[in-house]
Amino acid sequence: MSGESARSDFWRGVRAGLPVAVSIVPFGILFGALAIDNGFTTFEAVLMSATVYAGASQLVGLQLFGQHVPAWLIVFSIFAVNFRHVLYSAAIGRRLGHWPNWKKAIGFFFLVDPQYAEAEREAGRPGGIGFSWYMGMGLLIYAGWVIEAWIGSIAGRFITDPHALGLDFLLPIYFLGLVMEFRHRPLWLPVVAVSAIVSVVAYHTVGSPWHVTIGALAGILLAAIMPTGRRPQTVLA
């Protein structure tokens, strides 16, 4: 790939990441504020965002660090919250066969939820997923998340109730939009329906955060056993 083409792909990735970067602003700031409230320093809050880079598991870690629980339980809890990323890497890894191993290692670090969804969509373009495009999106979201933790650790405590402002609903809306982008694929409706139903049932029986992974596994199992040669006859509104 030429340098000009690589730069073009990089900035196309940046543009793809802009909606995500905007939607996570309240969550990144909220994490920074909560970290300070839980006894973290600004440096520790920023370091956690830069190294763990996973919002839900960072919040779980904050809750456990102050409770004097064993270190293995903290690690296991964070693993449980982020187990879905094992599924992400397994799914997207087959599309990155043209990447050298060092690029794959870097790419998997940035493989958060929206990065995976956008990468799956990008895989349908001629040439597949390019490293420049992938890093354009990934670096923008990552840099924003770390900076927001820093801002939150200084001033984020003034946002005491994001629910009252509706800020907590920005990211779910974005994810719903990503799911709808795949609605023309075979088996989309039954897979989404089964995943949603099983996830809700698991939430009320097994509990969070395992309901996310259990719902995803149910959708994968259904997709694996259903024939793909013919799209189910469904009516979409």
List keywords for this structure.
237 residues; mainly alpha; 2 domains; 72% helix
Fold blueprint:
Elements: H1 3-23, H2 25-37, H3 42-51, H4 55-65, H5 71-81, H6 84-93, H7 101-109, H8 113-122, H9 131-155, H10 162-165, H11 170-181, H12 188-205, H13 210-225
Helix pairs in contact: 1-9, 2-3, 2-4, 2-9, 3-9, 4-5, 6-8, 8-11, 12-13
Textual characterization of the structure:
The chain is mainly alpha-helical. The protein folds into two domains: 166 residues, no CATH class; 55 residues, no CATH class. The chain is 72% helix and 0% strand. It is globular.
Give the distance, in angstroms, between the N- and C-terminal Cα atoms. Answer: 42 Å
> Ranges with pLDDT <50 over ≥5 residues?
230-237
Task: Work out the helicity level.
Answer: over 70%
Write down the secondary-structure element order: HHHHHHHHHHHHH
Largest sheet features: none
Structural class: mainly alpha
What does the radius of gyration come to?
A: 19 Å
The number of helical runs is 13
The gist of it:
The chain has 13 helices and no strands. By secondary structure, the chain is mostly helical.
